[in-house]
Each structure stands twice: as C-alpha cells, then as structure tokens.
Amino acid sequence: IRKELGLTASVGVAANKFVAKVASDLNKPNGLVVVAPGKEKEFLSPLPIRRIWGVGPKTETVLKKIGLERIGQIAAMSHSELTARLGKSGAHFWQLSQGIDDRPVVSEEGCKSIGHEITFDTDTGDWALLKRTLLGLTEKVAQRLRLNGVSARTIAIKFREADFSTCTRRITLNNPVDTSEKIFPAALGLLRNLFREDILVRLIGVYAGNLETDAGEKQGSLFDQAPEKDRKLAAALDDISRRFGGEAITRAALVSKKKLYE
Q: For residue 194, which of 157, 153, 230 has the smallest C-alpha distance?
C-alpha cells in the first residue's frame, strides 16, 4: 500500500474478525499488531470495555456502574451472571471478551458504499480544520464515485470524539450525486449538527451510499444548469489528475498558507 499508493495502513492479524479489528486500531497510524492463536483472551484482557464491538457510550456507562472497566473483568464473570444482568447483549459481550468470534469472513463483489475517513494526529476542536478536512475527504469520495461510474443518493458522516464515542449521521438526497459541489453541503450540515465547542474530535469520515450506476443521460432541470457545469468541471479535474497525478490540482481551500508563500 505504501509503495503503490503512498499511504499508511494499520493492520491487525488474528485468528478471528473481532480480535483482528481491535488489533488494527491499537497502533495507528501505520501499525502492525499480531495476536497469536490462543492468545486472544490475554491480548484483550487489559483493554478498556469500549473496545468491545457493540459497547457505545450508554452501554459503557451501564457496565462501569457494575464495576466493569476492562475486558478482562467481563471475561472473569460467569456467562450466566452477565446474561442475567444484560440479557442477549451480556452473552454477546462475554463471548467477545473470551476472544471468541465465529463469524465467517465473506468477500462481497462490488461496493455498497464509498468512503474516506481520517484520524487526526492530535485530537482537535478547531472548526476550520474540521471543515477543511471534510472538504478534502469529500473530494476523494466524489472522485472515486466518478471513477467507479456510480452516483450516491445517501451521504453519511462518521464522527469520533476523543473518548472514542462514535456517532454516524446520514441524509438521503432527492437526486443521485457524484460531485463535491453536491456532496459537501450535505456532509457539512451533518457535521454541524454533531460538532460542539466543548469536545475534541479524534476522527471524521465521509461516506456515499445507496449507489446507482450512471447509465445513460441524467435527467436535468430545465432552469438550473449548475449540475451540468459541476459535472463538466469534475470531468476536467479528473482528466488533469489522470494525466499529471493526484497532486496536480486541488481546491484553494485545501492549500495551506505556508504552501501559498513558498
């Protein structure tokens, strides 16, 4: 990935999906964590309970009220006791705390959604930085939509705070879109609804879903010619990127002041 795309990637290697996912999240960016078979429970034991798939902020509060803060503490409880307290969720958490996950790995042809996300090097509450980062992610999503010959009716954002609590918000549009001019305002509106000045943000992401194949001509508006102009502009940008590389052209809003004066 680094050689061909110039990107870093964090990798988790384990005997099942859950443990591999947890491992992949531990040493970002560019980390590699390998959990040997039979060591799953030992690996998970010291980690906070929010690392368990399905434990959100509300569930974390409930678990902490009964004295459970580490995955190992859940693993030490009996299956029947945890189930009695939390029902089916308790059984689910107990199984994962033991490092057990029997879900098969299933590969899917085609894509159901296209997205990009970024984890900040330092948790931030800078609205200008969040907005600029969102625009950059939107550009990448829009370009990939066009590259794959699809448009999206649903736009979603992922928003993770410094304490790892994570929210997603989505909106379904009247018409399918594949340009930043249409995607960014929708994504920005969702981000505004989640942002608060008193919290720090760890990660944001943009996703395009409910995809439709671009077959034939799109129905346009008799009076509004902006969508067609947007698509022509996007096509020109895509052509420049193909011919001269992805860094050949970008939006002024994504260029730092330092670069402007270099």
A: 157
